[in-house]
Design a protein that fits this description.
By secondary structure, the protein is of the alpha/beta class. The protein has helices at residues 3-14, 45-53, 67-74, 105-121, 146-163, 184-195, 210-221, 237-241, 249-265, and strands at residues 19-23, 58-62, 83-86, 91-94, 97-99, 128-131, 136-139, 167-171, 174-178, 199-204, 226-231, 245-247, 298-300, 321-325, 335-339. The chain is globular and about 60 Å long. The structure holds magnesium ion (MG).
Length: 353
Amino acid sequence: MTAGGRACLAAMSADPAHALVATDYDGTLAPIVDDPAAAAPAPGAVAALAMLASRAGTVAIITGRDARDAVGLGSLADVPGLIVLGHYGAQRWQDGMLSEPPEPPGIRVVREALPGLLAAAGAPAGTTVEDKGTALAVHTRRTADPDAALALLREPLSRLADSTALTLEPGRLVLELRPPGMDKGTALRQLAAERGASAVLYCGDDLGDLAAFAAIRDLRADGLPGCAVASQSTESPQVSAAADLVVDGPPGIVRFLAGLAGTLLSSGGTTPRTPRGAPDGSAIVSGARSSGLGTTSCTPRGAPDGSAIVSGARSSGLAATSRRTAPSSGGRGRARSSRRPARRRHPACTGRR
Ligand SMILES: [Mg+2]
């Protein structure tokens, strides 16, 4: 581990209540599989996150997936207080509630155009399209020659992205068309600012995670301790090259996070995660969110389409108190009120890069 990474872990041990631990899902918490709909967490992943959540101020997933998919696949609703940022941060799931922007118009055009485009381009058998709602991903992992298929499709998909004001994001044997303007680095920086983080750690495995690693470097240059952890993959060696620590795939990530949780639980940090005045063991639930997430509505899981409750968007300037009614599924159907610990503003956490 680099000296910067070690400094971040030391800062987290000294002040776990303001630690932000964030991780990607696919390839990081969950092994890559042929069918994205079958990506389950590595053994022990959810338990490690839950242990972290009992001590660290903020634990988050930042994924290119729809947040609901990640929560469902990973049984992530079992992790108290977890924040899941889906679609590279455009979506937010927290405490059973989802907020997301409307579908960009270009996505509908791409959805309709893709079958014909793939046929015209000669996409080989095994090419699959994953519809993420506000993004569409073309996978070549199941073709006879995944790298050749990816090279074949890159140019026509790039033209389609250009014509629909979308961006083409490469990944591990996948090309994804999605709205521009949001990436995991932006999402991580906004979350660090919102939560008043005093140290930030991020785990990832793919090219889309490099933006989050860059955010870690930027925050560190501004004086905020940070650590980038790579889930090693031969498919994206650039990620390991940019990391402070490289571990052996999702099982290595699970061991690392469990070890970090153990360290934080036994550390001498003096600021408890439980907010002042709250009952013992009560989880922190933040109602405040960064105003930069483009949030337009807050919809409970299982609610009818289009049913919006409240915006929930508010200034990130002060500690906030919230009360929400969560849906009844999964034991989350009760009004919860909580208060976040007072923000500890760091110069690097004021929204600037
Ligand atoms: Mg990944």
